[in-house]
Structure formats: C-alpha cells, structure tokens
Amino acid sequence: MDHSANSIPKVLIFDSGVGGLSVYQQIQARYPQLDYLYLFDNEAYPYGELPEQVLIERVVKLVANIVTKQRIDIVVIACNTASTIVLPHLRQALNIPVVGVVPAIKPAAAISKQAIGLIATPATVKRPYTHDLISQFSSGVKVKLLGSTRLVMMAEEKLRGKTVNLDELKETLLPLINKIDVAVLGCTHFPLLRSEIQQVFGSKVTLIDSGEAIAMRVGAVLQVESQKNSQSKKNHYSIYSSAAPWDGAALNKGLEHFGFSPVEILQFQDA
Fold it and tell me: Which of 78, 108, 193, 200 shows the smallest number of beta carbons within 10 Å?
C-alpha cells in the first residue's frame, strides 16, 4: 500500500460500545506512528439483539460515511457480532481494507491441556459462526461457553472510573472456575477487565484475546513497521458516538488515558 511521505495512515476502529478500545490499545502500542479514529454506535447497542439486515445497513452506512469524510485507510471492526455479520457487505461497499475480529479459539486450542472457557456476549455464544469455529479449531479440546451481558456493562463502568466488584465478577464467572486452563475473552470489552478476570481465575488460567493478532494484521495490510515503545506522535485522537453516551463526563475522563479527545456525537442520518 502506497503512502506518500507526509501522509500518515489513518485507522478507523469501530464497535457498538467502548470495548474496541482494547483492540485500539494493542494496535496503538505496536504502531504509535499511525493516526487513529474511534467510532462507536451506542445508539443501536447491543448489536446482538438487532435483526441482521438492520445491523448490516446501519454499520455499512455509518462506516462508509466516516471513511469518506475522514479519508480513512483501513477499518477495524472491533466487535464480534458486527464482524461475523457485516464484514462481507462492508468489504463490498468500501475500497479500503477491512479487518474483523473473531474469538481466539484457535490459539487457545493450541495451548489448552484441560478445557477452554469461551466468555462472550450471549449473541456470540449462540451464533452458528462461533460453533463452526469451535468444531474447526478446538480439535478434541472441550470448550465451555459462557455468555454474559453483565461483563460488558462492568467494562463500561470500569472505563468510567467505577471499581469492579470482584465478588460479582466471581459469581458471573463461577461456571468456569476450576474447570478450565485457558479463557478466551471473546468480546472486545472483556480485555478491559483483564486484570480483574485474571484475579478471579488465578494464575493457572491463561487469558487470550484477539487484540494482538488484529494489531499484527493491521501492520501487515498497511505494510508498516512496529515502533513499539516509541513515543506516539499525537495523542489526542478523535472519538465519535452515534448518541450521547451515558455518564459522558466520566467516560471522557477515562478516554483521556487512552489518548482520546472528548466524545463528539455524530448524527446518524437515515438517508
């Protein structure tokens, strides 16, 4: 991909909520020299409950619109639900690369000796796509599924400065405790709770998410070198939402740590 000397590739990270920040973190840590923009469609959250056709139309319209206006070079769909449903349609609509996210079943199966716990949203746990991934890659390793919407909310609350209640977290993860040796964080929100989840499971359980694989894919597609540990050129990236986010002031404070300016609301036009 050809970038003129003065044009810095611009990466759009898209999710229904702020979970995609966990993916952004991994990409930005590896490639601080790139420019970033984040868009979350909180107006239609949670995506798992939308009819597929509605989801496809929304995401294609929102993403195509911002890609044109902001001259984006690559789109990262940092949401499992949107990735499994919208990706082919988005690739058809755009003439730039689109990278999606899938639960990291394959790398988990490579290291699990006991059983894998896939923690995801209820929609991802139910989706045939997920079950295909499991039968394709888990090769004889047992996979236990846990669907939780509460964990998504806990991640959103943590980002707004609320302390995670470890007892509640333990109760949520109880079906998997002492039954697995690898946990797949199958929703982009969950790595935001990584340290707390690790605390609940203990050190014998390895946590795996897709963030690093996506970061490497972005670098390969853009043909850029990792500059890990170098200083970022700019750290006030733009972040847009499709509706006013709840507890916006606390959210903006949390976003500042990630290097984002306060959230701007993007009007979603039903053309």
Answer: 200
To the question of domain 10-101+212-265 being in CATH 3.40.50.360, the answer is no
Q: 10-101+212-265 and 105-209 share one CATH topology?
A: yes
> Which residue of the set 50, 75, 185, 187 is catalytic?
187
Q: Is 138 a catalytic residue?
A: no
Give domain limits for the chain: 10-101+212-265, 105-209
Active site residue 50: no
CATH class, domain 105-209, is alpha beta
- The pTM (predicted TM-score) of the whole model is 0.91
Cβ atoms of 14 and 59 within 8 Å: the answer is yes
Show pLDDT as tens, one digit a residue, over the chain (271 residues): 444 445 899 999 999 999 999 999 999 999 999 999 999 999 998 888 889 999 999 999 999 999 999 999 999 999 988 898 999 999 999 999 999 999 999 999 999 999 999 999 998 999 899 999 999 998 789 999 999 999 999 999 999 999 999 999 999 999 999 999 999 999 999 999 999 999 999 999 999 999 999 999 999 999 999 998 776 556 789 999 999 999 999 999 999 999 999 999 987 554 3
Identify the active-site residue in 12, 34, 74, 79: 79
Largest Cα span, the chain: 53
Beta bridge partners of 119: 146, 185
